[in-house]
Design a protein that fits this description.
The protein has a two-stranded antiparallel sheet. The longest helix is centred in the N-terminal third of the chain and has 12 residues. With about 90 residues, the chain is mainly α. It is built from 4 helices and 2 strands; from the N terminus they run ααββαα. The relative contact order is 0.14. It has a domain of about 50 residues.
Length: about 90
C-alpha cells in the first residue's frame, strides 16, 4: 500500500510532535497500513511509520512533466465584459 503525500506529511508532523487532526477514516487507513497505533496513550507511530516519516519527500513535480493548462475558448463580449448571446458555433 502506498501513502499519499498528505499522509506522509501527517506522519512527519506526528513524529515531530506537532498537533494534527485526523479524520476517522484517515486514522483507520493509517492503522490498517501499519504505520500508527491508536491506543490509550493516543496516536503512536510504529517503526514502519517512523521509517516512512524519515524519508525525504519525493519530488512529484520533477518526476511528472506538467502539461500546460487548456486555454479557454475566446468568446465575444460586450463593453462591460458580458458574453454576447447567440455566439455559439454551429456544428454544421
Amino acid at each position: 500500500m502506498t501513502l499519499s503525500n498528505l499522509e506522509l506529511d501527517i506522519l512527519r508532523k506526528l513524529m515531530n510532535g506537532e498537533a494534527v487532526s485526523l479524520s476517522s477514516p484517515l486514522r483507520l487507513r493509517l492503522e490498517m497500513a501499519g504505520v500508527l497505533r491508536d491506543g490509550a496513550r493516543g496516536i503512536v507511530l510504529t517503526d514502519a511509520g517512523k521509517r516512512l516519516a524519515r524519508q525525504k519527500p519525493a519530488d512529484v513535480a520533477a518526476s511528472q512533466p506538467t502539461a500546460a493548462p487548456k486555454a479557454a475558448p475566446k468568446v465575444a463580449r460586450d463593453g462591460r465584459g458580458r458574453r454576447l448571446p447567440f455566439q455559439r458555433k454551429s456544428v454544421f
